[in-house]
Design a protein that fits this description.
The protein is an alpha+beta fold. The chain has one domain: Beta Barrel (Lipocalin), CATH 2.40.128.300. The protein is built from two helices and nine strands. The longest helix has 19 residues.
């Protein structure tokens, strides 16, 4: 008689335990696709930290032309990018003992996965975001600006 009661009770407990251990077949929700950054996302103050992967001060070398600012070593610079797309860029040069500077401004706009800079005095430059660094390809040289 004991055998009749124990065997069904063990079978019931085993079935109940297996039923509660079933694995859910629902899949986790897919992560939302990340949106490309906007001008508002990248706006801020940036400091010039390198040119063509060289630390400052750095002279542009083969691109230097006598009598032009590119013949002087670049000792620093900054880039201010506003949320409305306007920018101001300042570059400091060592002009043999004294520091001179050059300033320019313009507007930026989104172009596919990067940005374009339109200079007030003419010209168009690619602006690429890499983490906290903005890269400007200006006349064949890569200027790297780090977010402050």
């Amino acid at each position: 008689m004991l055998k009749r009661v124990v065997v069904p009770a063990v079978m019931f407990a085993f079935a109940l335990g297996c039923a509660s251990a079933t694995v859910s077949s629902t899949k986790p929700a897919a992560a939302p696709a990340s949106q490309p950054p906007t001008l508002q996302d990248i706006a801020g103050q940036f400091a010039l930290v390198a040119i063509d992967r060289h630390a400052l001060p750095y002279a542009l070398g083969s691109q230097a032309r006598a009598g032009s600012t590119s013949a002087w070593p670049i000792v620093g610079g900054s880039l201010s990018l506003n949320p409305n797309g306007t920018f101001r860029i300042q570059t400091s040069y060592d002009t043999t003992g004294a520091v001179g500077s050059f300033e320019a401004s313009g507007t930026c706009y989104r172009a596919e996965s990067n940005f374009k800079m339109v200079w007030n005095d003419g010209g168009l430059t690619d602006l690429i975001l890499r983490g906290d660094t903005l890269l400007l390809n200006k006349e064949g040289s890569l200027f790297a600006y780090l977010r402050r």
